[in-house]
């Protein structure tokens, strides 16, 4: 109670909020605010943070993208950090109770992706960049159990092959956006300071095999990113013949593709609105795709407390 000039004013009592109102309020907070603040206020707020309506989306992409210095990037490629991401993902998947439909994370493992496949039949968006331990076996489970998938980002996931692309295309007819970007090997000595050398060496070398799978099994694509892919004119032709509805195509850094190959492919793509050609600008690609620069100390490890 607040007294002012003889008047008595009642302050709002948050303890009297219904669960429905509290869930509505907490769902408007960022995931960082919920995980680092709201769920530690009291037991009631913790339970509200676990409500399925609050956990239909997990999107950490902003936190990763905004971190652009190299000070903490080494830690992102070790198993301890992967376990933290897995733990957070596992909690959200369980709390969502099947309502999870958008996942944007990095550095997760097969275990968490398998759990998503098992418990998230309504999944529509999956972005799992930089996941060295996600494999074709788990992606096959995801393909068969998440038929509503419409957007997929498996950039820099080198244990995922053309086999997964084929299965996803066969089981996910709604897929419209695919991102399959690779790391550039230019300035590889800098990358090796932060990304394990043995992982860099597993980079897919035959881009035409993946291109063939995309063209044959995912003809409904409207947006495709293949930055630094090893595909040649042959692979690009297969994509242009199979994915005739493409509106956006990103071939930045695809140095095995020629101007003639791009011209021939463009003639098949009548719906094409934007085309990023393989022009190579070292400074630009380093700023955006230099993975030794993706993170900084603002993305604190204690954000992943469970």
How far do the termini sit from each other?
36 Å
For the CA atoms, what is the radius of gyration? 22 Å
Q: Ranges with pLDDT <50 over ≥5 residues?
A: 282-306
- What is the assembly state of the chains in this entry? single chain
- Along the chain, the helix and strand elements come as EEHHHEHHEHEHEHEHHHEHEHEH
- In DSSP terms, counting alpha (H) and pi (I) runs of 4 or more, how many helices? 14
Beta percentage is 5-15%
C-alpha geometry: elongated
The strands making up the biggest β-sheet line up spatially as 3-4-5-6-7-8-9-10
Structural class: alpha/beta
Residue share in helix: 25-40%
* Total E-strand runs: 10
Major beta sheet summary: 8 strands, parallel
Average pLDDT, all residues = 83
Report on the structure:
With 306 residues, the protein is α/β, with parallel strands linked by helices. 40% of the residues lie in helices and 11% in strands. It is built from 14 helices and ten strands. The chain has helices at residues 19-26, 31-36, 43-49, 61-65, 79-96, 110-119, 136-145, 162-171, 188-191, 197-200, 207-217, 233-242, 259-268, 282-289, and strands spanning 2-4, 7-9, 57-59, 102-106, 125-129, 151-153, 177-179, 223-225, 248-250, 274-276. The strands form two sheets. The chain has an eight-stranded parallel β-sheet with strand order 3-4-5-6-7-8-9-10. Strands 1-2 form a two-stranded antiparallel sheet. Helix 8 (162-171) links the parallel strand 6 (151-153) and strand 7. The chain is elongated and about 75 Å long. It starts with a strand and ends in a 17-residue tail after the last helix. The model is unreliable at 282-306 (pLDDT under 50).
